[in-house]
Design goal:
Blueprint: H1 6-14, H2 17-27, H3 29-39, H4 45-68, H5 73-83, H6 85-93, H7 98-121, H8 129-149
């Protein structure tokens, strides 16, 4: 089965909203100013994208952990060890100013995609997994690029 199930696709796309909102409020200062007044400064610009990205990178560690439960023995131990890398990456490296945090977060998402591929090639993720992950990761990286290069 290579077609992404509709709920997974729709919820995955919905999960992009904070990243897209972050990029929009950075690219449109008027929208950012309006949103800061209504929602507060924490929910605009790089702050929302970086905070949410850190949460999602950690969440994806849990997904990989779940894939690892399909393994046993030494392979399971390796899977569990690999699965915690995104969360530890977010914890140790995402911080500082917005530009450096966005760079480290983007590197974390790129690394996560490599881990996704590793688990997928072992048959631990569904057949459609990489189609969804490449789509979502591409949008996330594009949104983080706004913070990195703006």
């Amino acid at each position: 089965m290579n077609q992404i199930p509709r709920p997974a696709l729709l919820l995955g796309l919905a999960g992009l909203i904070p990243f897209l909102w972050s990029a929009l409020t950075e690219l449109s200062p008027q929208t950012g100013d309006w949103a800061a007044g209504v929602l507060g400064p924490r929910f605009v610009g790089p702050y929302v994208g970086l905070a949410y990205g850190t949460v999602i990178l950690s969440f994806m560690s849990g997904v990989l952990w779940g894939f690892s439960t399909r393994l046993s023995g030494r392979e399971a131990a390796t899977g569990y060890a690999l699965s915690v890398i995104p969360a530890l990456w977010a914890f140790f490296f995402v911080g500082g100013g917005p530009t450096s945090a966005a760079i480290y977060l983007a590197a974390g998402f790129a690394g996560l995609l490599a881990l996704d591929w590793t688990f997928w090639t072992q048959g631990l993720a569904p057949g459609w997994w990489m189609r969804l992950r490449v789509l979502l990761t591409s949008v996330v990286l594009a949104c983080l690029a706004v913070t990195i290069f703006l």
